[in-house]
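Progress narrative, Year 2. Work on NADH:ubiquinone oxidoreductase B14 subunit from Monoraphidium neglectum advanced from sequence curation to structure prediction during this period.
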Amino acid sequence: MSTLSRIGLKVPQQGLFGGEARKFYYEVCRCVPFIQKAMKLDEIVSVRDIRSVVKEKFKEYKDVKDQRVIDLLIFKGRQELETYLTLHKNRHHAITEYLDPIIRRNKGHTLPAPQHSAFMESFLGGNSAAPTGK
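Result:
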């Protein structure tokens, strides 16, 4: 028995013959409403949007055929899911790592140009007058 099995982590032993990746995908989708509520993400995105991000992440690796790589991806995904479920990562982590592109696409805005005050403009532009020293 491996150390990981003793502490309660599921470690795939024979690869993904039983559709382990699909089961994990559904597990993540079932956890999405809890994560949304716990991190108060309902103010900015819906459950549907979060699930679409999850779907995109899974589709990034659709061409991977090596069972060891698939097992590793599932293991790392479980670690990430557990980190979010235990709230070891905060709201800003979820937003910057996963939701930022979705939020920008939905709201259709780009980063605004910074507005500077007169003082800031003169400071950034440099002082053209020579300093007066006494």
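The helical segments are 3-6, 20-38, 47-59, 67-85, 91-107, 118-125. DSSP finds six helices and no strands in the chain.
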